[in-house]
Amino acid sequence: MNKLATTDYPIHDLPAQRWSPRAFADRSVAPVTLGALVFTGSWDAPAELG
């Protein structure tokens, strides 16, 4: 299947092409949950530790 994901903001074609009907729910994510996810991602170590 070659279906592009519908997004609210422009994204690169590669992730847009990874659309999966099993990966998404038909309900939105609570703002507090989304904020926690983004904040936790900021704790990740930088890729260029050397």
Quick structural summary:
The protein has helices at about 15, 30-40.
Distance between the termini: 41 Å
Strand content: under 5%
Give the overall silhouette: extended
- From the alpha-carbon coordinates, what is the Rg to the nearest angstrom? 14 Å
Question: How many individual helices?
Answer: 2
Describe this structure in words.
It is a single chain. Helix content is 30%, strand content 0%. By secondary structure, the protein is mainly alpha-helical. The longest helix has 11 residues, at 31-41. It is built from two helices and no strands. The protein is extended, with a radius of gyration of 14 Å.
Keywords:
50 residues; mainly alpha; extended
Write the layout of secondary structure elements.
Elements: H1 13-16, H2 31-41
